[in-house]
Amino acid sequence: MSYRVGAFVRVSTDRLEQHSSLENQRELIEEYIEEKGWSLKKLYIGPESGTKLNSSMKELLEDIENKRIDILLVKDLFRLARNAELSHRVKNEADKNGIHIVTLNNLVNTMEGNDRWYGLYSMFAQMESENTSEKIKFIFKKKMAQGKFINSTPPYGYRIEDQKLYIREDDTPKVVRRIYHDYLNGASPKAIADKLTTEGVPTPAQVNNRKNAGLKWQENTVRGMLLNRHYIGTVVQGRTTTISITTTKRKQLSEEDQYIVEDVHEPIISKELFNMVQDSMLKRKRNHTVSKKQIFSNLCFCADCGTGMWYRKNRKGYICGKHADQGNKGCKSHLIKEASLLNIIKSDFQAFTSSIDKAVIKKELHKKIANHLRQYEQEINKVKASIEVRNNRKVEFLTLYVEKQMDQESCTAAIDKAKEEINIFEKELEKLQNGQEQNNIDQQNLERDFVDFLFAGQTAMEIVHRIIDKIEVQEDGTPKIYYSFEEPSEQRINTAS
Questions:
Q1: pTM value?
Q2: How do residues 237-267 score in pLDDT, each as one tens digit?
Q3: CA distance 66 to 58
Q4: Taking Cα atoms as reference points, which of 28, 102, 24, 47 lies closest to residue 69?
Q5: Helices (DSSP H) in 327-407: which residue ranges?
Q6: Alpha helix (H) ranges present in 66-165?
Q7: Domain 146-287 - what CATH class?
Q8: Do residues 82 and 245 lie in contact, with contact meaning Cβ atoms separated by under 8 Å?
Q9: Residue 146 CA to chain centroid, in angstroms?
Q10: Tens-digit pLDDT profile for residues 170-185
């Protein structure tokens, strides 16, 4: 029988010389397939790390699910995935869809019922990646502790040479000094950004020759420069760290855990100027009053440019945010009075009362509730599956120990690690189950609140945000209201003034 083979290859690093490894893997795989009389259906090339769900792995899982291949062939399990959970996911999907997994060294061959050590090899693959990751982190930490700049992108005004920052010999250092002085003279970060844009001053992305570099300075860019201690000769690194090798998520580290080394390179501004700016930023933050959130905040959008609408107290309504920022050259005002919008919604509800049966609305709400709870159930099942995987690992470790395939110290360490992971997942499971229970209550309250609102004419902000997805406002002030339970309604208002 000519089986359709999906072959997965991967290199250990992204260095150029590793490309020959891909060719070697492919040649070995093609020879093996020819010897067996099978046919190569597809070749999946994975990235060097193999610890996350990348595009090639997604493609493989999709082909397994749709039974586009009969056999998954890899040189060894270390080439398939270095994330044990991901490796088990491939195995589970393959088992479910009748797809065989075969390694060239025949340590795993489900066609012959040989998959006993699959879990162990998957664990070892992840442990190898974790060890490599820790070694790389150690090297970086050592360099950071020495004040070496290990980032690939230097702060605006600097260049990198031999992992050290040097002041650029162009106008960028002058721009940095100007930003600090302008801020001390009362200019806001936004005003500074707008002025730099108007004058055509190159942005940080342009200076660093990034693809699709923006020509416009951003307020957050200026604010970040005002907070950047690199400008006083201090190197600050290690602000975040990866949670694990299996995710791209990072967590923020406290300043005590960061690597901060002073007087490493030549400063662009003095410490006195930097401290004066920090004091000024703190004072402005204290004096900043948070505006009252309006009933239609984050619901109204300009129908022409898509920008969120801003509430203006003096106009008692909402205007296009781009117009508020740039005037008529950005967009028209699209003014809509808050009172007029409230009247339209009240009118809509009166129409609903006379034309729609309560049972119909309740049915739609029940659909939404069921969908939301189904999503919760899926997340709970995923966590339960992860716990089951780790419980199975513990059994595997004990079996290996009993059969003298694993020493006591390694077995104990592996089981302890599995227990630690199970504990984390059990906490997550408890959180999800509590959330599911609370969500049931919340969804019931939502249904009750909505029905009360619909048939009693209530207009509380909380309920408005529950039943309206968004509102698009035309240039003449006509709102198009997207209710969460029906097609959008469009009404012309005659009270825009």
A1: 0.37
A2: 765 555 443 444 555 656 565 667 888 889 9
A3: 12
A4: 102
A5: 338-355, 358-402
A6: 77-80, 84-96, 118-145
A7: alpha beta
A8: yes
A9: 32
A10: 999 999 999 999 888 8
Mean pLDDT score across all residues of the chain: 76
Q: CA-CA distance, 146 to 153, in Å (whole number)?
A: 18
Comparing CA positions, the residue from 71, 61, 87 lying closest to residue 29 is: 71
Structure tokens, 440: 């049931």
- Residue span(s) of the chain under CATH 3.40.50.1390 come to 4-122
Identity (one letter) of the amino acid at 5?
Answer: V
Mean pLDDT of 38-46: 88
CATH code for 290-497?
1.10.287
CA angle 86, 91, 95 (to 5 degrees): 150
| Position 133 pLDDT exceeds 90 | no
- Could you give the CA distance from residue 147 to residue 162 in angstroms, rounded to a whole number? 12
Greatest mean pLDDT among 79-88, 134-143, 230-239 lies in 230-239
Look at residues 416, 400, 422, 408 and name the one whose alpha carbon lies nearest to residue 121.
400
Question: Phi and psi at residue 47, in whole multiples of 5°?
Answer: -70, 170
And the tokens for 11? 């290199």
**Is 312 a residue whose pLDDT tops 70?**
yes
In 198-337, which ranges are E strands?
235-237, 240-242, 250-252, 259-261, 300-302, 309-312, 317-320, 336-337
pLDDT tier for residue 455 given thresholds of 50, 70 and 90: very low
Contact indicator for 91, 26 with CB cutoff of 8 Å: no
* CATH architecture assignment, domain 4-122: 3-Layer(aba) Sandwich (3.40)
Report the distance separating Cα 127 and Cα 135, nearest Å: 12
How far apart CA 89 and CA 389 sit, in angstroms, is 10
Structure tokens belonging to residue 212? 């699709």
**The tokens of 185 are what?**
């003279």
Specify the amino acid at residue 134: E
Question: For 393-447, how does the pLDDT look when each residue is reduced to its tens digit (9 = 90+)?
Answer: 887 887 787 677 888 788 888 888 888 888 888 888 887 777 667 556 545 554 5
Longest alpha-carbon distance in the chain: 86
Q: Give the per-residue pLDDT at 350.
A: 63
**Residue 15 CB partners (closer than 8 Å, separation 6+):** none
Domain span(s) for CATH 1.10.287 in the chain: 290-497
Question: Which two structure tokens, joined as six digits, stand for 210?
Answer: 């990034």
